[in-house]
Amino acid sequence: MSNRAVVVIDLQNEYWPEGKLPLEGIDVAAANAARVIAHARGAGDLTVNVRHEMPGGPIFVPGLDGVEINDAVAPGSGEPVIVKSFSNAFRETGLQSLLEENGIEEVVTAGAMSHMCVDATVRAANDLGYRTVTIHDACATRDLEFDGRSVPAAHVQTAIMSALAFFYGEVIATDEFVSR
Length: 180
Description:
alpha/beta; Rossmann fold; six-stranded parallel sheet; 5 helices; globular
């Protein structure tokens, strides 16, 4: 096994059009994430899926279809699934222990939402000493509003990815990742 892990964050049914919190470009992001996962499996990388759950919440309710990882990126047999209840996938989960047990030095991320769980997890991974690579076109987000202004998803994505690239690690496209 390599010293790299691909961490697929929250690509759950809730984010698809039939879910309660649809994201722009989720199908493209998931297709790219599937390519990243296939490449990682072929390279012997550890592949970890992360699933957000909010018992009693309005979204990601355990037992409902929205909480399930989408079939486009379904975990393979024996691949770990980390269940979290905070944006940061390291917080109060076994993710860090799993990475340490497998000698992981580099964390590659893909998933949703770029401005929440991807951002929080990449920053935490960097803070914990991991090299990070974020696959920007395998991540999705949504339009946001702040102070009476609407921010289109494309602008949210650009802002988050540029912030991550500025300090927290490498940010690349799927094609570049799979060609390495």
